[in-house]
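Researcher: I'm preparing a figure for a lab meeting and need a structural model of a single chain. I don't have an experimental structure, so a prediction will have to do for now. The sequence is pasted below. Please return the structure as C-alpha cells so I can convert it later.
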Amino acid sequence: MIPDDAMVKCVVWDLDDTLWDGIALESPDGTLPTPRPEVLQLIDRLAACGVLSSVASRSGPSVLARLRADAELSGRFFAPQVAWHDKSESLRRIAGELRIGLASLVLVDDSPYERAEVRAALPEVLTLAPEDAPGLLDLPALDPAGLTEESRGRVARYRDEARRKEAEGTFEGSREDFLRWCGMRVRMRPAQHADVPRIVELAARTHRLNSSGIELDAAAVRSMVDAPDWFLPVAELTDRFGTYGMVGTAVVAVAGSENGADAAWDVRLLTLSCRVAGRGVSAAFLRWLLERARAADAPAVRTPVRIGADNMELRLLLRQFGFRAEQDGAAAPLVTFARATDGPLPEAPAWIECEYGAAS
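Model: Understood. Here is the structure written out cell by cell.
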C-alpha cells in the first residue's frame, strides 16, 4: 500500500521483467528488449507531475551503455545505476547524484528478494511491485490541481542540470571558475501571494537545507505575506543553462512582533532547494537575511534548528555565519541557534550576482 503522505521525488525502476519483458543480457542480437508501453506511459505521466525516474538494475555495464545510447529511453532516466552490487547501494548513489533524500525514492521491482533487500537496508525507501506502481498517480501530492509551476517543470530543470554536469566535466578551470562561467544570478525579494504554493512546497519537500522542518499551512502563509509582523523572503536563481525557479524561502517573525521593539528576529524556517547545494546560494540568501535584520535594528537573529544528519549542511552554514547553539550540549530535536546582527558578515560568493527587489 502506498501511504497518502508519501513525498515522492524519484521512482527507481528495475529493468529486466519490470521495464521490459525478458533479460537484456540474454538478448541474442545485443539489442535491448522492447519496453512495456504502459510503463513508459506511467513514467511520462509521473514526469508531468514533477517526478523523476531512474534505474537500478543488477546487470552488466554493457546494458547501461545500451540504455544511454537508446534515444527513446536515455532522456527519461536520471543517474541510472546498472551494476552487480546490491540495489540498496544503487539507491544510495542515485539519491547522492540527484541530491535528494532516500525517503523521497520509490523502488519498483518485480523481484520480492530485491524489494526485501532494500526494505532491510533502507527502510525509508518505499518499495512496490510493478503492478502497484500506477497507484503513485493517486497520491494527493501529485494531484495536477495542486501542482506548482516549479513542480511541473522539475524534470526539465534536472535535464538542465545534466547539461551543467556535462559542461563542468569538460570545463578547463577550477570549480569556482566554472560557477562564475555559469553566470549565476540570484534575485531575493519579499514574497507575494502568488508565491504561497511554492513556499509551502519548499517547506514540505526540502531536507538537506531545511532548518526546522516545520509544516506550513497555505492559508496561514497567505496571511503572513502582508502582515507587518512577518517577513517572508524568497530567492530565485537563473544561470546560462536556464532557470531554477524559486529555490529558497524563510518565515520570520520580525522585531516587535512578540517581544516589543528591537526584539530579535525569529526565523521559524529557513529552507533552500537541494538543487542549489554547493553553489553558494544559501550563503548569499542568509547574508541578505542578516543584512535585513540589521537594517531593521534587530539586535539578533534566532532560529530553531532540528538536529540530524540530513540537515548537517545547513547547520555548518549557520556556524560559518557566526550562529551558535544557545543550549550547550542540548540533545533536543530542536535547538535554538543565534547570532548578534553587529559585527562582520561573510561575503556572498564572488561568482554569484545578487539582485535585491521588492515584490512584483
